[in-house]
What we know:
The structure holds two protein chains of two kinds. Chain A is α/β, with parallel strands linked by helices. Chain A has helices at residues 5-9, 18-23, 26-35, 50-61, 78-84, 104-113, 143-147, 152-158, 167-170, 186-198, 231-236, 249-264, 266-291, 298-310, 317-332, 340-351, 365-376, and strands at 68-72, 91-95, 127-131, 134-136, 148-150, 163-165, 175-179, 200-205, 208-213, 217-222, 239-243, 295-296, 337-338.
Amino acid sequence: MTQTASTAKKPASTKAKAGAVARKASGPKKARTKKKQGQAYPFTAIVGQEEMKLSLILNIIDPRIGGVLVMGHRGTGKSTTVRALAEVLPMIERVKDDVYNRSVDEYIEAEKSQKGRKTLTPEDLTIEDIPVPVVDLPLGATEDRVCGTIDIEQALTSGVKAFEPGLLAQSNRGFLYIDEVNLLDDHLVDVLLDVAASGRNVVEREGISIRHPARFVLVGSGNPEEGELRPQLLDRFGLHARIITITDVGKRVEIVKRRHEYDEDPQPFLKKWSREQRKLQKKILNAKALLAEVTMSDDVLTDVAKLCMQLGIDGHRGELTITRTAHAFAAFSGDKEVTMDHVREIAGLALRHRLRKDPLETMDPGEKIERELAKVLGEVEEV
Amino acid sequence: MIAFTDIVGMDLAKQAMMLLAVDPSLGGVVIPAAVGSGKSTLARAFADILPEETPFVELPLNVTEDRLIGGVDLEATLAKGERVVQHGVLSKAHGGVLYVDSLSLLDSSAVSHVMDAMSRGAVLVEREGLSEVHPAEFMLIGTYDPSDGEVRMGLLDRIGMIVPFTTQNDYRARKLIINCVLGKNDSEDTEDELKMLRGLIAAAKEQLPLVSMTKEQMQGLIQSAVSLGVEGNRADVFAIKAAMASAALAQRSDVDEDDLKLALKLVLVPRATRMPQQEDVMDEMPPDEEMPPETPESEDQDAPDDNSDSESSEEDEQEETPDMIEELMMEAVETELPDNIMNISLAAKRKSRSGSRGEALNNRRGRFVRSQEGEMRSGKVAIIPTLISAAPWQESRRQERKKKFGKVNTALVINKEDVRIKKFRDKSGTLYVFMVDASGSMALNRMRQAKGAVSHLLQNAYVHRDQVSLISFRGKEAQLLLPPSQSVDRAKRELDVLPTGGGTPLASALFLGLETAKQARTKGVSQIMFVLITDGRGNISLQSLYDQDAPKAAKEEVEKEIEGLAATIFAEGIASVVIDTQMNYLSRGEAPKLAEKLGGRYFYLPNAKAEEIAMAALS
């Protein structure tokens, strides 16, 4: 006995709608409170690894840069740094209790498209400030938890088909972090690629049909020796930071000491670093405010285009990323005008992973970029 | 059951366990040892020296992902009508010990989860509608037989101590264990000894916060880590902790030379990626006195560090400077090398000759990643997704049934279209084993082609989750340059330094390839392909490898060996491709013959481009 489509629709009259879920957001909320762990190691107390720290900061300043891929030796503080990020992130405004962290405009826009709803005005909504979310996507996550699925408890107990948002919903307007990203299951990579490209998550399963915004800064980390990253995913990351073992004994002693101090008793340690943390937070906020005023002259733009051309970078994502990143870097440095000095500082980050791969190439991509840059700037004679 | 104190030999392993019991934040102990060395007995006996009621959880190799990290407890969920969560093995070990036998055979997704739990101290469950954090702080005890393959470096990095690999005392230990089993030991003594050990550890735990280390000592340890090329910062922390735990065990408040030495031996030396360069120190060192092999005299374990080397006490009792610690390090390296570095830290380079375990530990061990609609009989039913899809219709179906039959006699009405079938991830693609003839004059050319082809294959085939392994053969025997890997970085690095010239030990290469293939099979790789880049003219026999004095084998004998191996490879269901790059006029048809024996394809591609070889393998 098979069901006809019409009977199937009936019990689903409480059609899962974003708005409806937001009002009874008990499910995901419960999960979130459980997740509250102790405060992370302070971002500013991390010794060295400037490349990674800078890339993360630039992504806070301008999330459109498109995320960071951090690859390097194991045990060098990759995940510690990313997890420390949450504490220096600014606050954002969202509609109160909205599971998709939508801003007022986004919310109204989404409601408008729902048929039969009265048009909302900003006055109808309550607003709250939340810290920019940082969501951890563990390797063992199943697709239904990532994309969201029907709330089984509700379904079993009351027969109501409610949508339970997944990690993609939680990470909207925030950061989505994947440790060991090079080991992520292929089907999850597909999902991510899809969502990252469109900025929307579309769920069509178990009789529910939902689409919600899912714009996030993708942060991945891993050790290249454990496996390669799929080229499409590699290309998605705006920046690529490399991280290597520090060989300076003094610095390493400092790392061990700080870690020990934190492990012994985190509270005094956090207090000790709170000033630095606040300072950085303020600097980031200032940069964010300044970003709109930062400009780039045509000359610099031409040089950037030349650089990308000479490096044989396919597509325009390279140029776009390097330009945005340079803007963010200028803002972070407190400058209103992007110069080639700014570009030089971040060129490696933005382009390293976009160079065409030559199996027999032995030159480090960073060096190659540096060399081409020098050529573009006329600092060396072209050969 | 054999108690901790009854186990003889493996003193260093026991010491490591004592340190771990004193400071669980050392993460764990890895014990590589050959089969029958009593390593698993020792691992299980670890519970003896821990406080009672400490959880001791054994991780089975065939563990499924939901059992490992936890999920929905179906039975309880249905009974209670609300979601009931079942904790996984990792969180069950919280506050206690997680024991993994044959750590190197654990499949890679399980390894990733263990790693993640160890760095987080918790398990993140994001599956089947669940979103929870379960605490999972545990000590990991891992044992493995190095001939089964290597343990992933990322995992080793999170485990504080790695016991140097020794084979010497297994025989002795076994004999004594037998004595134990036969009841020649007094059980009352055992109980007393254990009590004493537990007391010692409890006292050391109290002592631990009082132990301090000088800045010089710390610098010395870290300097050693740098000179040994230890990657990352975790080992620094572990080394310091190990030294301090060792001091605490001896009820001292400051760290001495023996403590540092132990830390070097258990933490830093096993992670070395290069030999330290310290010619000047080497010169000054007295001729290397034989380090007393771990002697049975230290059976009475009341003073755990009394088997440390006697030579150290000869040195003056002055403050250790970082330099002195480096000398200590050199000493440790000297006595432990070359065996240890070769066997453990560079396990990747090890050639394995033994220990094929047959296959099929893993028939349905793939990962359950999603569910989809399907026929009940076409696979495993995914119960929770099935319920989820059936749940919303219960009310209406019941009414429908009532209308039709007048009553409903089941609690749940599940229809055919609700059924969801589990889809498993195809764990691994194909393993390509490249065997490159590096002999003679064509060697250089062939090598460059192989290098290109390997890189090419890796880059193109990543989507299929393929792996590549590389064997070169020249001179007397074949060498495994790259164990199965997906990493272009590693492949390149291994390929960059590759000597050529000499004889053609083709048989040895086939043999090694077969071993590699068997090992890969135990890890769940089912499809294997050999890509041989050679002219097929083997002229060194396997025999000569094992018997140095054997007369140079006759041509027929070499051929016979190759033939036998080829037949075995064929019978194992391994596909082969032979790529002949020899100039036409030099070839005498050996390569096509080899391909035929292997039941594989033959390609004649002199001066083939890397892409062409890759294409040939893929097609």
